[in-house]
Every structure is written in structure tokens, then in C-alpha cells.
Amino acid sequence: MNVRYTRLFLKQYGKLPDRIQEEFDEKLGLLLGDLHYPSLRTKKIKSHANIWEASVTMDYRFTFKIEEEVLILRKIGTHNILQNP
Questions:
Q1: Is 60 helix (H, G, I), strand (E, B) or coil?
Q2: d(CA 8, CA 43)
Q3: What is the bridge-based pairing of β-strands 60-67 and 70-78?
Q4: How far apart are CA 64 and CA 8, in angstroms?
Q5: CB 3.0-4.6 Å disulfide test: which of 26, 58, 63, 74 passes with 85?
Q6: How far, in whole angstroms, is CA 53 from its chain's centroid?
Q7: Which option is the CATH number for 2-80: 3.40.1280.10, 3.90.420.10, 3.30.2310.20, 3.40.50.1950?
Q8: CB 20 within 8 Å of CB 60
Q9: pLDDT band for position 47 (50/70/90)?
């Protein structure tokens, strides 16, 4: 599966602490191997069609969608990003 990053995602990612960036990089590898890997706690966001959320840590999440064979990373940050995924 190919990966694409939105500008917003890249901007938010760049502001994250190094430790969280490293955690995300590991989680992305897990996600590409298995969308439902247990530690990711992946689930669809009910109020938005085709948008998913997954965990980086207990405090940080990221959102994404899948179009054909492309994983599009939308946002990353604390739980607040889920208010407008």
C-alpha cells in the first residue's frame, strides 16, 4: 500500500516531540502490515465516512483514510484532533 501525507499532517508531525515522531514511525509500519494490529486501537470515526483513527500512544492519535490502495494520513496530535478529524 502506498502512503500519502496531507500538508496539515506534515505540519503537525513536524511540531511533535521527537519521541512521538519515532513512536508514530513505528506505528505506521505496524499499520501497513495489519490495519487492525491491537496496539493501534484502529477504528472508524462514526461521524465521518471513510475516516479512521489509530493510536500512537495513549495521548496521541492520528487520522487517515484509504482510497483504493493509498493510505492518506490526514492529522496527528492529541485527542483534540478527533473533534474535527
A1: strand
A2: 21
A3: antiparallel
A4: 12
A5: 63
A6: 6
A7: 3.30.2310.20
A8: yes
A9: confident
